[in-house]
Amino acid sequence: MEASALGPARRGRRRTRAAGSLLSRAAILLFISAFLVRVPSSVGHLVRLPRGFRLTKDSVKIVGSTHFPVKVYVMLHQKSPHVLCVTQRLRNAELIDPSFQWHGPKGKIVSVENRTAQITSTGSLVFQNFEESMSGIYTCFLEYKPTVEEIVKRLQLKYAIYAYREPHYYYQFTARYHAAPCNSIYNISFEKKLIQILSKLLLDLSCEISLLKSECHHIKMQRAGLQNELFFTFSVSSLDTEKGPRPCTDHNCEPSKRLFKAKNLIERFFNQQVEILGRRAERLPEIYYIEGTLQMVWINRCFPGYGMNVQQHPKCPECCVICSPGSYNPRDGIHCLQCNSSLVYGAKTCL
């Protein structure tokens, strides 16, 4: 998880840029006039953007080793790389009368009987639609002659094949507001209206706003006495594109790009509010944003049964790899936890 603290918003009165605004000035004025909210002018930028998690082109064909099992990572429900039944030394060598035989977690693999796992004429193993249950140790038995005169040589190559998924990642925002008395209904009304407007703002991006926590506290301020403050925590996450209000078909549908756009829209929303309020000559309203308290955190989470482990999976460090036997992940945490009684891949409980 990487956090990016947002610096204090700059005070001042600036002209509102009408062009390119997704929330009309009238909508902002309506929101302000209804709830008299004051918010900061700007927020900081994210330190880094999430990377893609798909394997590189160099991993399209994977060779084995006679010394250790070679690890292979296949995205869930996707086609696998070609897993070759040769070592790097034999890959470009001439093999006389080679024969290949593959065995997986469920026994011998026969292409004609298996629609999801296929063995090519050159002995490569390919999965068409990789499922969680396919994760495990796969062994290829290779027999061949280096030359016609030599005797048959036999090799046994092992592969540890893992399903993996992209992480579930989202932004988490926190902010504090000067509030009405903690038992006031105006605080509850403000909370609901704010979430409604933010949700409408992100509607076309297939992103979801979720209020995680809202609390009202009494704060003793130096030279200002006792004040009421609202502490808000809300998240912004991407929905599946097919669940959004409009179908999304181009490269901008990638969750990380949609989330980054959502972050920018939220920044602009707060900027426009402070620009309009900056021209007000009246005293501060009862509910208004406390400058410098807006924080933004970028959070990575893996789905239950999956986890990140740079030491165990150095070639897929930002992948949520299926938990191996002896570990489990019961919730959307980052890592698989140790569980000696777990005997399956992708365990979500420790019995």
Automatic annotation (TrEMBL):
<keyword id="KW-0968">Cytoplasmic vesicle</keyword>
<dbReference type="GO" id="GO:0001675">
    <property type="term" value="P:acrosome assembly"/>
</dbReference>
<dbReference type="GO" id="GO:0007339">
    <property type="term" value="P:binding of sperm to zona pellucida"/>
</dbReference>
<dbReference type="InterPro" id="IPR048805">
    <property type="entry name" value="ZPBP1/2_C"/>
</dbReference>
<dbReference type="InterPro" id="IPR013783">
    <property type="entry name" value="Ig-like_fold"/>
</dbReference>
<dbReference type="GO" id="GO:0005576">
    <property type="term" value="C:extracellular region"/>
</dbReference>
<comment type="similarity">
    <text>Belongs to the zona pellucida-binding protein Sp38 family.</text>
</comment>
<keyword id="KW-0325">Glycoprotein</keyword>
<dbReference type="Pfam" id="PF07354">
    <property type="entry name" value="Sp38"/>
</dbReference>
<dbReference type="InterPro" id="IPR048806">
    <property type="entry name" value="ZPBP1/2_N"/>
</dbReference>
<dbReference type="Pfam" id="PF20626">
    <property type="entry name" value="EGF_Sp38_C"/>
</dbReference>
<keyword id="KW-0964">Secreted</keyword>
<feature type="domain" description="Zona-pellucida-binding protein 1/2 N-terminal">
    <location>
        <begin position="69"/>
        <end position="165"/>
    </location>
</feature>
<dbReference type="InterPro" id="IPR010857">
    <property type="entry name" value="Sp38-bd"/>
</dbReference>
<feature type="domain" description="Zona-pellucida-binding protein 1/2 C-terminal">
    <location>
        <begin position="302"/>
        <end position="351"/>
    </location>
</feature>
<dbReference type="GO" id="GO:0002199">
    <property type="term" value="C:zona pellucida receptor complex"/>
</dbReference>
<protein>
    <submittedName>
        <fullName>Zona pellucida binding protein</fullName>
    </submittedName>
</protein>
<dbReference type="GO" id="GO:0001669">
    <property type="term" value="C:acrosomal vesicle"/>
</dbReference>
